[in-house]
Every structure is written in structure tokens, then in C-alpha cells.
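Researcher: We plan to redesign the surface later, but first we want a full-length starting point. C-alpha cells attached.
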């Protein structure tokens, strides 16, 4: 196994990525991976990519523009159309790479990225398989489960940040993960445990995004694209996920022509480590090997 630092271009800006190549003869089937809301590839995506490479697959792991080592200003901007463009650019780069098989490309996304891979595969029927883990699939459903008294202050922050964006001023940030009493996208009394699962020791992560994303996420509904996904898609769903709706994720599996779902007794962050990580890795590797190497 070897890992290369590479870049590809998305709408004129560089996206930073790792390209993992397995041993053996090229061209290799490849899994493209990207993270969720405000997260970067250092937050355990290497653990997933390593398992896929050990199974005989190449892996391309990238950061969205405005995050991590990728270009783009202002930093911390979550713009759904831009992130979907980054996925399209990653697919185009993979197809053009001489050591990768253009006919055997899979998409892997988690949380918000788990929604993006549904949309990307619905738009690109050349994708061979999709894995969507604890995915963001329906902003309407997520908003309906939110507590109004907690969301109103966040709405004020989002409106202020949007105004600053129009005026070309620096953004106002909101935390992605927070403890009770903090203004954050996801508030939990177990935040420190969740943070430990997600962020490896020694990794510095900016735990915030530009607040204007809160105005656009409720309107984002990857579930409506499910019927257009023409390749096998595996949904890995936590029954106790309170960040993204498990019911909406199951609906994707039921609506997609070649959809299947695996349910796990866990919450949103249990997927990143421990027993649930091992279970999902076994299921995902078996799924990807079947559809890319079978």
C-alpha cells in the first residue's frame, strides 16, 4: 500500500487529496471518500481508506474547498452546490487517472457527505456502487425534529453571517459540535466522547463552519434523488442517530432501485470507532468487493 498527496481542480480551485494504491497490477477499482459537515479527511477517513485498500481497492480521500488543505475563501464555508461540484471533479480525476479503472468507481460518504454521494450517483450513472453512512438525507425531516428555542438563536447567527457574506465581510462561525448550553449545530451531553471518537489524538480540527449554512441545509433533500440512483447503494444507519434521521435514510434504501440498508444499534458518532466501526467495515468491504471486484 502506498499513499500519495495529490490535488485536483474544482471550479478553478485546488482540492487536496490522498490517493491510496493497493499492491498488484493496475488499473485498480477505486473508492472516493469525503467527510461530513465541517470535517476534514484527517478525522478518521484514513482508517476507512486503509481497510478498503487492504481489500484490494484504491481509495481517493479529499477535502472540500474551503476546508482542510484545499483552497477556497472564506474558510469554513459550506456551500452545497460547491461540494457537489467537488464530488464531480473527484470523479473526473479518478476516471482520467491511468492507474485507476474508470468503469469501477464507488462513492463513499458520511453524514452530509452521505447525502452528497446519493445526489452525485443520481447525476452520474457511470458510478458502479455507493456507500452512504449515517447520512444526511432530508433537511426538512431534520429541521422538524429540532427544538425551536434552540434553533432561533442559530437562525439569527445564520442571517447575520449571510449578510456579512453579501457585504464581502469575514464570516461568523457556529460550532459544529457543542455541549449543552452552547450554540452549536449538534449539542450533546456526550460531546467529549463523540469528539474523542471523531478526532484522533494530535489532530487539530476547526470545530466550526460559516453560520449561513443553516439557511440552506433544511432545503437540501438527497432523499428526492434516490429513485435516480442506478447502481447498488448501501445505507449504513444508526437506529439511535439524533443528528440525521434514520427513517429518511431507510426511505432512500427503499426508494433506490438497487438499495439496501444495514441497521446498527448506535448513534451518529459510534460509527467512527470500536465495535460498530468493525461491523460496518466488514459490511462495507464485502459490499464493495462484491460490486467492484466480483
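Model: Full-length starting sequence:
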Amino acid at each position: 500500500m502506498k499513499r500519495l498527496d495529490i490535488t485536483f481542480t474544482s471550479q478553478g480551485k485546488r482540492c487536496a487529496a490522498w490517493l491510496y494504491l493497493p499492491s498488484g497490477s493496475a488499473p485498480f477499482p477505486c473508492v472516493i471518500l469525503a467527510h461530513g459537515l465541517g470535517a476534514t479527511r484527517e478525522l478518521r477517513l484514513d482508517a476507512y481508506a486503509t481497510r478498503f485498500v487492504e481489500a484490494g481497492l484504491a481509495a481517493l480521500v479529499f477535502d472540500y474547498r474551503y476546508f482542510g488543505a484545499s483552497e477556497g475563501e472564506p474558510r469554513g464555508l459550506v456551500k452545497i452546490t460547491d461540494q457537489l461540484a467537488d464530488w464531480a471533479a473527484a470523479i473526473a480525476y479518478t476516471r482520467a487517472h491511468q492507474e485507476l479503472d474508470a468503469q469501477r468507481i464507488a462513492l463513499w460518504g458520511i453524514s452530509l457527505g452521505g447525502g452528497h454521494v446519493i445526489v452525485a450517483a443520481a447525476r452520474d450513472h457511470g458510478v458502479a456502487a455507493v456507500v452512504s453512512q449515517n447520512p444526511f438525507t432530508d433537511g426538512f425531516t431534520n429541521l422538524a425534529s429540532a427544538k425551536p428555542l434552540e434553533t432561533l438563536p442559530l437562525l439569527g447567527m445564520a442571517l447575520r453571517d449571510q449578510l456579512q457574506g453579501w457585504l464581502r465581510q469575514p464570516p461568523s462561525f457556529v460550532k459544529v459540535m457543542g455541549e449543552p448550553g452552547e450554540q452549536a449545530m449538534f449539542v450533546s451531553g456526550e460531546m467529549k466522547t463523540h469528539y474523542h471518537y471523531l478526532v484522533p489524538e494530535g489532530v487539530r480540527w476547526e470545530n466550526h463552519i460559516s453560520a449561513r449554512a443553516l439557511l440552506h441545509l433544511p432545503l437540501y433533500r438527497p432523499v428526492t434523488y434516490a429513485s435516480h440512483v442506478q447502481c447498488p447503494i448501501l445505507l449504513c444507519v444508526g437506529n439511535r442517530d439524533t443528528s440525521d434521521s434514520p427513517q429518511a435514510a431507510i426511505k432512500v434504501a427503499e426508494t433506490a432501485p438497487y438499495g439496501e440498508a444495514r441497521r446498527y444499534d448506535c448513534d451518529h458518532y459510534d460509527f467512527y470507532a470500536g465495535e460498530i466501526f468493525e461491523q460496518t467495515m466488514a459490511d462495507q468491504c464485502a459490499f464493495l468487493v462484491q460490486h467492484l471486484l466480483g
